Fold this protein.
Amino acid sequence: MDMWPSLVYYHLVKAGVYEPIRARDRRGGRGNKAMPVTTLTPSLAEFLGIHVGDGSYTAHAWWLKDGFEEIAYCQNFVSPLLNDTFQIKTHASLKWYPSHRTPRSVIRSQSAVLFRTLEYFGFMPGRKARHVKVPQLVLDADEEVQKSFLKGLFDTDGSIGAGSDQRPIIVAVYTRSKDLAWTVNQLINELGIETRKVTMGRETYQVAPRRSEYENWMRTVGTSNLKHATKWEIYKKTRSCFHIQRYGGV
C-alpha cells in the first residue's frame, strides 16, 4: 500500500535520514513549523510540473534555471504563479553561468512554505534527475490537475522543434528517470492522446505524442511558455520546421 507523502517525510525525519529545513518562513514563524499547501489545484499542479521539469532545491533554497530565451516565461508566468500559490514574491533575472557559456533565466526562493509543500508531495532536497516521478496524488487527481501538471512539465522540460527526419516534433519531456517517463506516458494516454514509443538515447528517455495528435496535444494540454506558443503558431502558419529552428531550435 502506498504511503501518504507527508507520512514518508515524517518517518524519514524520525529515523534521522532527513533533517527538517530550519529556514525562517517569509510569512512568519520558524521554517520547520510552516504549513504546506495541500489542496491540489491546477495552479499547484502546474508548479509541481515545473519543479519536476527544471526545478531544484536544497535545504536552503529552491530555484528554477531555464534558457535565456525563457526569461519572459519566468517573469510573466512563473513568478506570478509562485505569488498566487504560496503568497511569496520572487523575481526572475538573467545570470551568467560560465559552465553553460550563456546566460540563464533564474528564479530563486527560500520560502519554507514552498519547501514544506514539495515535501508533502514526496519531493526531497538534492539531485532528482534519475529518481523523480509523478506524485501519486497527481496520478489520482482529476483531468484538470493532470493537464496542468503536464503543461508545467512540457513548458520546462519539453520542446517543439525538428526531428531527425526534419519533420516537426513535439516532445512532452526529456528525462533520465524511467519512472517519470512511463508515468508521464500513462498520464498522456489517459487524457486520450496517443503517444509514440518511449525512446531512450544517451541515457535520456523521450516521451512524445504521435504526430497525428499534435493538434489534440496543444488543445488539451497547451502551453504557458511564450517560446513554445510562438513556435506552434509559426508551424501552424508555415507548416515548416525550418522557421521553427530559426526561432530557437528544439
About this structure: The chain is about 45% helix and 15% strand. The radius of gyration is 18 Å. Confidence is low (pLDDT under 50) at residues 22-31, 244-250.
